[in-house]
Amino acid sequence: MPEMLELHRISKTFGAGTIDEKKAVEELSLTLAPGDFVTIIGGNGAGKSTLFNAVAGAFFVDAGRILLDGRDVTFQPEHRRANSIGRLFQDPLKGTAPHMTIEENLALAYLRTARTRSPFGTVGKKDRAFFREQLAALGLGLEDRLKSPVGLLSGGQRQALTLLMATIVTPKLLLLDEHTAALDPATAEKVLALTKRVVAERHITCMMITHNIHSALSLGNRTIMMDAGRIVLELSGEQRAGMTVDGLLDAFRARVGRRLDNDRILLSEAENA
Amino acid sequence: MSLLVLRGAVEQGLIYALVALGLHISYRTLDIADLTTDGTFTLGAAISAVYVVAGQPLLGVAMALLGGALAGFVTALLQTRLGVQPILAGIITMTALYSVNLAVMGKPNVNFLKESTVFTAAQEWLGEYGALFEAALVTGALCVLLALFLRTQLGLSLRATGDNRDMVAASSINPAFTTTVGLCLANALVALAGALLAQYQKFADNTMGTGMVVIGLASLIIGEVLFGHRARRSLVCGVAAAAVGAVVYRIIVATAIALHVDAKSMKLVSAVIVAAAIAAPALRDKLLFYQKRREASRNA
Fold this sequence. Notes:
The complex is a heterodimer. Chain A is 38% helix and 22% strand. Chain A has a single domain, classed as 3-Layer(aba) Sandwich (Rossmann fold), CATH 3.40.50.300. The longest helix of chain A has 18 residues, at 185-202. Chain A is of the alpha/beta class. Chain A has helices spanning 48-56, 78-81, 102-113, 125-138, 155-167, 185-202, 213-218, 237-241, 245-256, 263-272, and strands at 5-14, 22-32, 37-42, 63-68, 71-72, 85-88, 173-177, 206-209, 222-227, 230-236. Chain A has a six-stranded mixed sheet with strand order 6-7-8-3-9-10, sandwiched between helices. In chain A, strands 2-1-4-5 form a four-stranded antiparallel sheet, covered by helices on one side. Chain B is mainly alpha-helical. Chain B has a single domain (3-262), classed as Orthogonal Bundle (ABC transporter involved in vitamin B12 uptake, BtuC). In chain B, helix 5 (120-126) packs across helix 6, helix 6 (130-149) packs antiparallel against helix 12 (235-258) and helix 10 (212-227) packs across helix 12 (235-258).
């Protein structure tokens, strides 16, 4: 079976040649098989979001190649890659248009990726029934509010809607950038459970950045730790199944020679303790 | 005000409504204050006038549409591909159009009182109500088309571009493309308004577009005030509000002239309406804040 995502020694440097030069990602290679669900943790400025931006095409990498489902997308612009890459950000306001209704937001995601792709396509009765069914599956009561502007929804509802928009037509790859970090704990739990279900049901290849080491180890089938733009630790299979939070933190210190310095991870560990 | 004057105002309003529809696309939908509008309106009038003189009024309207779309394309190119700020891009195109318009007409103004225009046939058929009927038909049809367009995939993409820039690229929308489409459509409508107005009043002048963007915005805002929150919530109401606002604006102008208000001060009045309407939410918030603070100090 061909790989779903292949990153070959990709590098990205910001502010090259200035005193602020920052090698955000350095010669990073990573391969995801179809259906892989990789969780990513790392310190502040380890290059996690830069990695996502590189994969999504928010900028072009300085070196290296990116293959999505066997096709070279290294120089494909972001909006083209977005046809097959779904993406959720930490800020729930980033994924939806607030002055458009729930139905219009879904229609936008659906019409752009599905079926005919005619610029003059519109949603019909059947599509609307499909939207309602999909919204009902979220269990948030949104199926009766198709005509409500999205701006009236809570952060959790908006994030759930964004998840639905990103997956309404199954993407080849789903990028989740701490997509529950800005939600209150109960809502975060709910959105995370939803994510887990959608990804599993549709067998979506997925990468998730998280600051919660528990979720990092319990969700998905692989975990990578990043530091200074590189992958410093990769876990899967039995080795991952037997790993504890403390074990992971120790392993990080052993590899990198210092403690993990992500404020949020430390805070959330303090909460869990 | 006589019925004749009122009819004239409504006829003009229905034509100017196309400017408001254009700004509904560029200003309301895409969230770009497109100053190309002033130049494009005159461009439409100039092209239309030249073709009327050559005995081709309908072709003149078609060419004006094309010319307007091209002007919008230039502005879009400047701001999406060449990194010029949106406002400046519009000003640059508008300035260039001043010379282009003079070149198109060959002189500062063109009269064609005796030539037949796109309104001639309707006037022969329906007499004095011909122009009113035709303007209502064209504007009505374009309102329907615009409302339908905004529901399509491309229309939704345009609206998302103006509503949330952050989501756009991640939703596989190319903002450069949607901005270009929007500005071409908006300016085509504005040029159409200029083309029809020139043929309606049987002359074109190189300054007739001056202040058009402010007049268009005033119309848009008047319509939104009349329709209330529905104008923002419903597509159909939003489009209808723009058209109705333009007609009401012309009736206000006609009333002012009937009351012997100097016609020259109408642009000042428009400017005040636009500034006040756009400033209204900020002023209201300030007022509420002062009220709250006063109450708080009284209760302290």
